[in-house]
Each structure stands twice: as C-alpha cells, then as structure tokens.
Amino acid sequence: MSTTTSSLSLFNGYQILSYALVIALLAYLYFKEIFSYWKDRKIQYVSPIPLFGNLLPVFLLRRNIAEQLAELYRNTTGSIVGIFMLNRPALLIRNPDIVKKLLIKNFDHFNNRSVGAGVDHARVPNGTCGLLASQDDTWKWLRKTVTPAFSASQLKSTTSDIQNVTEKTVDFIRRSSDKISGDINIRDVCSRYSIESGCSTFFGIDPKCFSSEISPYMVVNTNLFDYRLFKRGVHIAMGFISPAISKMLGLEFFHGDSTKCFVEHVRKTMIAREDNMEYRNDYLDIIREAIESYDGEGNLLFNTVEIFVANNETLAAVLTFCCFELVKNQEIQRKLRAEILEIQKDDKSIPCEELCQLKYLECFVKEVIRMYPNVPFLDRICKKDFLLDEPQLKIEEGTSVYVSLLGIHFDPEYYPEPHVFNPDRFLNDSIDWSVYLPFGKGPRMCPAKKYSEIIIKSYLASVLTNFELTKSSRTTEKMVFHTKGFTLQPSEEVFLNMQPLNNTQTVY
Ligand code: HEM
Predict the structure, then answer these.
(1) What pTM, to 2 d.p., does this model score?
(2) What are the TM regions of this chain, as residue ranges (predicted)?
C-alpha cells in the first residue's frame, strides 16, 4: 500500500515538474518571440524583463511611469528607442524633428492616445469619455464643441470670478496659517484654489472650499483620481501601461461612484440654470446645448468629470511647485514681487491683461513647468502604418509612441545645467517648441493652456503681493514625486511659512 502511494506521489511529482517545464518553455518562447520585436527591426532597444518589459521599477514602486520613461530617455541615445510596456513593444521618441512629425505633420497617423484604446466605450458609463481618451471622429466633434469654453473672450468674462477666488485664497491663508509659526500646508491651499477657480469658471458652481474645513467637492476630487489608494493606482496606471488588459478587466480610469456623485452636482446646477433661465456660455452651457445635438452613445454630462479632474490634478500641483521654488529662491521671489508691484494700481488692483504681459513672471512660470511638467509624457498610438525615414522603420498600426517631457526638459543638450532653477533661460525666447512641451502640441494639445497661465499668474500675484514665503522647519529640501499615477505630484504634503507683508489685500 505504502509503495503504491509513494509511486503515485512520485508520479505526481514528475507530472508537476514536467507541466512546470512545459509552461516555462512556452513562456520562454513567448517572451523570446515578443522581445525580439525591435531586434528584428534593427532598432536600438532597452533589454526587457519577462512579464514586466521595461517597467519593473514601476511595479516595485521605485518610480512612477513618467520617471521611468525619463530614466529610459536618459540612459539611451539616438532618435528612437524600442521599449516594452509589459509585453507590448512601444517607441520612445528622443528626436525633436520626429516629435514634430508625430504631433503635427503626420497627425492623421497619430491622432489618438493609447489611454483611449483601453476605454471600453460600450461598458464605461461616460459615453464619449471626454477629450483625453476619446478617439477619431468622437474626439474631433467633442474638441470642436468645447473649444469655445477655453477661448480668450470666454476667459475674459470670468476675470471677476477669478478675482473673487484669489481674494478668498488670501483671506484663507491669513486665517489658516499657524498663528505662532506662520506655517501652512501650501498643497492644501493650492488644491482649494484650483477647485474653486475651475468650478466657477467651467460650471458656475461655488464649491465652498474656503468656507468649510472639507467641502464635498474636495472629497470627490480626492476619491476620483487618488492613485495613492492601491486599487485606484492600479486602475489608472493600467490605462497607460496596457490598454488591452485595462479593457479586458473593465478597469475604471475615474472612480465610478465619485464620477456619479460629481455628475449629480452638475446635473442639479444645469436644472437650476434652466429654471432660472441663466446663461453663462461656459463649459456647462456648451455641454447643455451639445446634449441636444449629440447622437452618439453615452451621456455627455460625464465628460464634465474629466475637466474637473484635469483642472485640479494639474493646477494644484503646479502651483505647489511654484511656491516651493519661490521659497528656495528668495532673490527670484523678490524680483517677481517687484515686477508685479510695478503694475499695481493705487487702489491695489492688478489688471489681468498687464499681469499676463509681465516678462519675468512669464519666464518664472515657464521654468517651473519645465522642471515640473505636471503631465510628464505625451502618448500617441499609431492608427495606420507609418514610414519613418530616419531611421528607416515602419511604425506598425497599434504601436504606442511616447515623448518623455521629463526626459527632454532635463536634457543638457537643450537646457544647460538643467537641474538649476533659472527663469532667465527663457528671457530671449530662443528655445524651440519641440523641446519645450509642457502643454503638448498639435491638434491634441492642452485646450486649457491660456486658462492655466491666467490662473497660475493670478495666484502668484495675489500671494506675492500679500505674503513673504520662506522655509519652515517642515519644508523639505528636495521635491520628491509620488511613485504611483502618471502625473507629477509631490509625494507628501508641502509645508512652508507665509508671513503677511502688510494689512492691505491686493484686489484685481
Ligand atoms: C499647468 C496646467 C496644465 C498642464 C501642464 C497641462 C498639460 C497637458 C498636456 C501635456 C496634455 C497632453 C497634450 C498632448 O497630448 O499633446 C494635456 C491635455 C489635456 N488637458 Fe491639460 N494641462 C494643464 C491644465 C489643464 C486644465 C486646467 C484643464 C481643464 C480645465 C486641462 C484639460 C486637458 C484636456 C481635456 C486635455 C486633452 C485634450 C485632447 O486630447 O484634445 N488641462 N494637458
């Protein structure tokens, strides 16, 4: 009996071993075949690791996807580099001329993003999925429809709303700074300011971020896109890393319940406007009108969520980075303040048009977004085979191409001493756009560039004319980025010291 059992378990042991060997052999052959993709095409590539491709450090949470792409950029040379996003061959573009070709000249081959390829339009409730992920004709229609919401004339009409928000911000900082030390969590301030300005400009909503400890909009904002939560981090990262897996598993780019919650707020605002016959010609009104003419699937209201997230995710971080650099560079802070005070009127107002013309302020903002490109890489997917002439390569349909802004913006070939914060490098406008791409370029570039610049400059003007920003005992020496997600975010709260300059508040 015991002999039979032991021969049986021996047999099972052999069976398991042979199954394991077969699986290992198949896996080896599979990865050998996949990973020979760039070698077969005689394109330089970075050696991948089975299962992870070139993304192991991302999965080990050593760095986020953007930092990994920048690392791949730094460690390679040449115009293009073959990489592997898990098992998917992709290209990292290192040459400015090829960047121009992909983003503008041959847009018809590269008009969509990889992230959109992972959105299952039939399953996801957000219909057109917003500009970021929508594709082809849906994207074209939506972009044309919503562009007026970002136009100069529309933005001009919201100047008084923005002025209102900056006043509330200054008041909040005065109230919230630690009474003894003057310390404040600037990231929290910037997040409140971004939500307030975005909600009022695009939706005519008052989110009450400054009158309550935590407003419902702040909660929704945190939950929608919080990649610090493990599950959300996986969902969001997979949208970029593997659209196919993302689609197969039905992963949500934005948190479903929070999306519904935000849309409910928007829906109520819309109904109230209809009841009061109110019209502001803002994003909400444009969507309201579009709903009547749109004959696609899904609910157009859902793409308001994307605007809400895109606004808060980018601006809060960039403003935090601005303040961090102001603290580190006291001389630059003084110079900026002096420039802004020169255009301040006797009644303390600072006209928005004059503010936007200030040269040094312009250079400062440019330098902050060079060093902290909050959306740190551009991503496109090849729609139809494309022949690259130098080096010769047929980029096949379905291949993702990436431009690492974090890589290019720190390339010493374009930016001498790239780690030195130096706004002067932008003084003579000599930097070519193909190596300075914080808002992307071409038909798919950020529609909110102008708006963002106004919001950032208004914030800086109000803060600089009312406070002196200095280090606190809790200010970190170095900005460290969060290792999850795909935008650049500080890994921790950012504290600094803000002492009122005088008792008079700047108005706009
Ligand atoms: C400093 C702030 C911002 C930065 C650095 C930034 C950067 C970017 C970048 C790099 C892209 C990709 C462009 C490309 O692929 O060529 C983008 C796209 C986009 N951004 Fe921004 N952005 C900012 C603020 C905003 C704000 C405030 C909003 C909304 C209110 C917004 C909405 C969008 C949308 C909807 C897209 C997708 C456009 C499309 O595919 O047609 N962004 N942004």
Answers:
(1) 0.90
(2) 12-31
**Ligand 1: does its nearest atom lie under 6 Å from the Cβ of 135?**
no
Answer yes or no: is the C-beta of 314 below 6 A from any ligand 1 atom: yes
Q: With 0-12 CB in 10 A as exposed, 13-18 as middle and 19+ as buried, what is 77?
A: exposed
Distance CA 369, CA 311 (A): 15
| Ligand 1 centroid – CA 296 distance (Å) | 24
Contacts of 253 (CB under 8 A, 6+ apart): 115, 119, 133, 235, 236, 239
Shortest-distance atom of ligand 1 to CA 134: 40
Residue 323, marked binder: no
Question: Is the CB–ligand 1 distance for residue 146 below 6 Å?
Answer: no
pLDDT (tens, 9 = 90+) of the chain, 508 residues, equals 455 555 556 667 778 888 888 888 887 788 788 889 999 999 999 999 988 999 999 888 888 899 999 999 999 999 999 999 988 999 999 999 999 999 999 999 999 998 766 555 555 444 446 888 888 988 898 899 999 999 999 998 888 899 999 999 999 999 988 777 779 999 999 999 999 999 999 999 999 999 888 898 998 888 887 766 677 777 777 777 777 777 777 777 777 788 888 888 899 999 999 999 999 999 999 998 888 776 655 567 888 988 999 999 999 999 999 999 999 999 999 999 999 999 999 888 899 999 999 999 999 999 999 999 999 999 999 999 999 998 999 999 999 999 999 999 999 999 999 999 999 999 998 999 999 999 999 999 999 999 999 999 999 999 999 999 999 999 988 999 988 777 899 999 999 999 999 755 454 4
Q: 437 C-alpha vs ligand 1 centroid, how far in Å?
A: 11
**What atom of ligand 1 comes closest to residue 369's alpha carbon?**
5
439 C-beta closer than 6 A to ligand 1: yes
